[in-house]
Write a structure and sequence with these properties.
Length: 112
């Protein structure tokens, strides 16, 4: 089961950068996710469209096995990248996503 990402869980550690770089982030219906080698989900970020130009990030979850590898941060970045392309704004309701938005000034252009 995926656990909620808490503040601080996305701190990058030099020893885990290589594993993080090999991770495949997939896109699903209103979400991005990472599966383990067996195809089971180990990380996800879920958002809900609320009209044509707005989404709400509801949930970010990362399995304990990936803690400290920056996976949550990468998932938030994927949503931001997609919404920039689609010219949508984001409400980061999820506490982890909100924390990432609060500390990443580069996300100000897509924050609602």
């Amino acid at each position: 089961m995926l656990k909620e990402v808490a503040r601080g869980d996305s701190v990058l550690k030099p020893s885990t950068d290589q594993a993080r770089d090999k991770m495949e982030i997939r896109e699903g219906h209103n979400k991005f996710y990472v599966n383990d080698a067996a195809g089971s989900p180990v990380a996800e970020i879920v958002y809900v469209p609320t009209g044509d130009n707005l989404i709400v990030i509801e949930h970010t979850g990362v399995d304990a096995s990936l803690k400290g590898q920056g996976v949550g941060k990468l998932l938030v970045a994927k949503v931001v990248e997609k919404m920039r392309r689609e010219r949508r704004k984001i409400i980061p309701l999820c506490p982890f996503a909100k924390h990432e938005f609060d500390k990443t000034r580069d996300y100000d252009d897509v924050r609602a």
